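Allow me, if you will, to draw on your knowledge of protein folds for a short while. I have a record of one protein: its chain in single-letter code and its fold written as discrete structure tokens. Kindly check, if you would, that the fold set down in the tokens agrees with what the sequence suggests. Thank you for your consideration; the sequence and its tokens are set out here:
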Amino acid sequence: MKRLSLFFALLFAVCMANAQERYLDEVFTSVKVTADQTYGVNATILLLQQAGQAVPQPLKVDIYEPEGDTETNRPLVIMFHTGNFLPPQVNGGCTGTNKDADLVEMAKKLARRGFVTACASYRLGWDPINSNPDVRVYTLINAAYRGVQDSRTAIRYFKKSVAENGNPFGIDPNKIALWGNGTGGYITYASATLDTITDTWIPGKFVTAAGPMVIEQFNGNVEGTTFGVIPPTGVPGLPFPGGDTLCYPNHIGYDDEFQLSVSVGGALGDSSWIDPGDVPMIGCQVTTDPFAPYLTGIVLVPPPVNLPVVEVSGSGVAIPIAAAEGVQAPIDHPFIDPISVHANSVNGGVPGLYPFFSTDPTEGSPWNYAGSLNPYNLPTSPNCDTNSVGGKIFIDTIIGYFAPRACLALDLGCNLFGYSATNDRLDAAQVGLVISPNPASEFVRFKTESEFPIQHIYVYDMNGRLVKAHTNIEQDVFNMQRNSLAQGTYLPRSCSRTAL
């Protein structure tokens, strides 16, 4: 019989009676969804071939709130999906909208922690299969630029809803995070660092002999608050007719400041965009990501195209540069929770960086899964990966890393007891913790002194991923069944409640 080897680090935190901590734990059981709200209208090139011009597109957002919450000034997380800046009908069919299964799962998990989350669509469209490399680069940087404009439009939409519509979603307009998965991570990195359009004017990269690839007169400003219009005579080399509008302003008069950027699998268009004073960033990425380099390298169009596009910098470069510039100071904290301890053991101690390691050279987003084999009802099923169990393990880890840092960056006033080395803690011996048998085959028994009943037990693998969780135990003896845990070594974090 296989034996399960469990090694227990001294991470036994003593929780107060209110052990369930908003923003750190799922304190709500259900989520209210307000779907398909229009947060703006802007010009899309997605139908350029059919329409002969850019056409206005309503930008939609689904809003997730904790059901039964009495708070009315809650932090807002605006989330952007992956999909290679192309719709499912073009990119392979498993991702590409704000209703992607993994994005929705993240939104619901954050809402159950007390956040308001908003899964936003954004304008798609570029030419990844063009044989001209300059066209591939031009269309990609313009797609990313439109994504930045849309992210800032979304921020202004919510701030306007507070000022003019009675705050229907109960948000605090000064506590906003942008979160992007995959392609959405390119948007959130750029939104955090791209201050002006001239930041893109990098010779040999986004500037050719014909001039800059992004021009404010044509594309509008970074915020998306000015019109972008092609001159009446047209522009040689561009496919737009004269007078075509490429940017429509939305929600003028409201700022688009935010306080935290999160990239899950994305990369930064150019590391020179990072400056002191940028918002702090969290970057989670597979170190061997085959499409978005973890360090600095060439981003590739996914199979079957496999064409090179342009050099970018992944989280393994962007976050250390941000730390060196002082950007990460708001989240640079002595965290002691297992997820942070593991991250710091493999990231060189860089605050905000969570690298994932994979033995699969084709794996770039292990958190990604689909709700069905054909979630977008394409004529031919793409046979999408529906492994929600595996995906949710990574999602739990990512959110576990995000939550305490969001508490600091958004000034949420969280009780970081058990997360922070600055809090008093009791060790296992002080609460009489006994764990047996170890190693074990069928179950592991946790026992404490009666005045320190066990509140929660979280079990992590050696990569820091949460693989098992038992909450609200409220007993001094608990038998944790092995169930589906594979043979191996695990690190638990136990949490006890004092008898105060």
The CA atoms of residues 29 and 133 lie 50 Å apart. Residues 133-164 form the longest helix (32 residues). The chain has two domains: 5-11+424-497, 22-409. DSSP finds nine helices and 23 strands in the chain.
